[in-house]
Amino acid sequence: MPVPWEALIPFGLVTVMFGVSGTLLNVSTRAQNLGKPIRHNIDNWDEMMMRRDEQLTGHKRGQRDDPVPPAGFETSSVWQTEKTT
């Protein structure tokens, strides 16, 4: 049975485009996460730590190694301990 060589060009184009789109999606998601892979199965603790990291560094995937928080960190909590009215 002869091979229809003219059908290999569209097949090759479709295969290359799937590869290119998958690679661009991977690069885009890693760029949005500071080069780290995406997170799966995020529970309440992870969400809380991501909010804390965002307050400390400005990005939800950023982390700091120094224990000194930036200025204004002590008042940027979502928990209100007393009324301010």
From TrEMBL:
Main localization, broad class: mitochondrion
Compositionally biased tracts (Polar residues): 74-85
Superkingdom of origin: Eukaryota
Ranges of biased composition (kind: Basic and acidic residues): 53-67
Alphabetized PANTHER family for the sequence: NADH DEHYDROGENASE [UBIQUINONE] 1 ALPHA SUBCOMPLEX SUBUNIT 1 (PTHR17098:SF2), NADH-UBIQUINONE OXIDOREDUCTASE MWFE SUBUNIT (PTHR17098)
Pfam families: MWFE (PF15879)
UniProt region (Disordered), positions on chain: 53-85
Topology term for the membrane: Single-pass membrane protein
UniProt keywords, alphabetically: Electron transport, Membrane, Mitochondrion, Mitochondrion inner membrane, Respiratory chain, Transmembrane, Transmembrane helix, Transport
Protein family according to the UniProt entry: Belongs to the complex I NDUFA1 subunit family.
Any coiled-coil regions, as ranges: none
Annotated TM spans: 7-27
Compartments it resides in: Mitochondrion inner membrane
GO cellular component: a single term: mitochondrial inner membrane
Described function: Accessory subunit of the mitochondrial membrane respiratory chain NADH dehydrogenase (Complex I), that is believed not to be involved in catalysis. Complex I functions in the transfer of electrons from NADH to the respiratory chain. The immediate electron acceptor for the enzyme is believed to be ubiquinone.
Extent of the signal sequence: none
Keyword Cell membrane: no
Name of the protein this chain belongs to: NADH dehydrogenase [ubiquinone] 1 alpha subcomplex subunit 1
